[in-house]
Amino acid sequence: MTATSVVILTKNEAKTIQSCLENLTQFDDVWVVDSLSRDGTGGIVRNQKIQIVEFEWNGHYPKKRQWCLDNLPLKYDWVFFVDADEIIPASLIAEIQNTLSLSPSEAGFFVTGRYRIKEKILRFGIPNKKIALFHRERMQFPVVNDLDIPGMGEIEGHYQPVFKPNNTNFKIGHFRNYMIHDALSDERAWNFRHEKYARWESGMNQKGVWPKDPVKWRDTVKQFLRTSRFRPEIIFLIGFIFKLGFLDGAEGLKYAKLKHEYYRKVKN
Question: DSSP 3-state helix, strand, coil percentages of the chain (rounded to 5)?
Answer without folding.
Answer: 40, 20, 40
